[in-house]
Structure prediction request, 306 residues.
Amino acid sequence: MKHPRRTFLQFAVAAAAAPAFLRIASAQAFPTRPITIVVPFPAGGSTDAISRIVGEPMRRSLGQPIVIENVSGADGSIGVGRVARARPDGYTISVGAMDTHVLNGAFYSLPYDVLNDLVPISPLVTAPAVLFARKTMPANDLNEFIAWLKANPNKASAGVVALAFRLITMFLQRETSTAFVLVPYRGAAPAVQDLAAGQIDLLFATPDQLPQMRAGNIKAYAVTSDRRLTAAPDVPTFAEWDWRRFRSRTGSAFSRLKARRGTSSASSMQPPWRHWPIRRWELGSSPSGLRRSRLSNRPRRRSAHL
Prediction:
């Protein structure tokens, strides 16, 4: 006959082990419901497009629907703020860029801490900036365009989308000694629509707007990358026009997935790159080349140099 004390101890050990087992099983089961990716800009822009491209292989890999939710406003800080306030369970994450996770924290007083309230999941892509203009602009190349701006001070208007493009547009003004009006937009899609309609004269945007150029709706004068883009070999770089200060990093935007700090499942949500469609090249973007460990320090380093 088994001693009562031994029987009690066996049950006690089993009871103590049960919570640990349940925690392990729960972690292994993630995710058990849809995951929401908050895009802090309107639909139709590069951040939105990248989110939808990445979302599909994530859905197949994780076995749960990926819901894309556009929450725009305040240069992207409204959408990022929602993720910063969400439960750290991995079911609400964001796609960010230099604007939302570096510049906003350096220039604005935010209701959340970019460095301490969010944790990186995975780097995604980097993309240069392209200088676009309305199709009726009389200038045929970059030098003629700058000459037109100088001949028409304060008569042109430039769309600005988020803080990074605001800075590069102001940099263009300073370097060329030109003056024009800045018109803020909540996202690239409405800005490009107004550019195509002739409501504004110029716009810095990411290369995903190049199809509008190919369709003849807008013009493209130059790109900030070191080399011409594969997706637009006819668009010269700024360096080719001796505007070498507009190098790759001047307009480079990098995108990444972010989750609320404390999310233990962050590493399991890294996109399966071997299944990522070739469509990223159609956007004019390229893989960022950053490891997740280096991504944690990048916003801190960039903020320190601003």
User: Anything to note?
Assistant: The chain has two domains: 33-126+253-304, 130-250. The chain is about 40% helix and 20% strand.
